[in-house]
Design a protein that fits this description.
mainly alpha, 2 domains
Length: 122
């Protein structure tokens, strides 16, 4: 047990040093320039409203029309699950049910998407 812990600690130290070095090289502006900055909120994720290469016309429309609702959605685990299900081609109500996303945040995102992007999402 001690041997395993010692080996792990040595590896951890090297990894910690690499992480510190990597952190020191990023400019932290969140501009997505390849420095690992993410969106500037510290979580390393890209902005949820930015276009992604695999976005469908439905997802593109929803990102453009419902950005505030999607930002709130991505802060909620169940809503994020439902959105990812939709992005993979799932049915809105089925995704919402399967992810147990029957809450105000999910309802707001779904309603916004239906109100603004119904033609692109059917």
């Amino acid at each position: 047990m001690e041997m395993g812990m010692g080996m792990g600690m040595g590896m951890g130290t090297e990894m910690e040093m690499a992480t510190e070095t990597e952190m020191a090289t990023g400019d932290g502006d969140g501009d997505g320039d390849g420095n690992g900055d993410g969106d500037g909120d510290g979580d390393g994720d890209a902005d949820v409203c930015e276009a992604a290469p695999n976005d469908t016309t439905c997802i593109t429309c929803t990102k453009q029309a419902c950005c505030p609702e999607l930002e709130a959605c991505f802060a909620d685990v169940a809503c994020t699950c439902a959105f990812q299900c939709l992005a993979l081609g799932g049915n809105a109500l089925t995704c919402q049910s399967d992810c147990n996303a029957n809450n105000d945040v999910s309802n707001d995102a779904l309603t916004c998407g239906q109100d603004n992007c119904l033609a692109q999402c059917v």
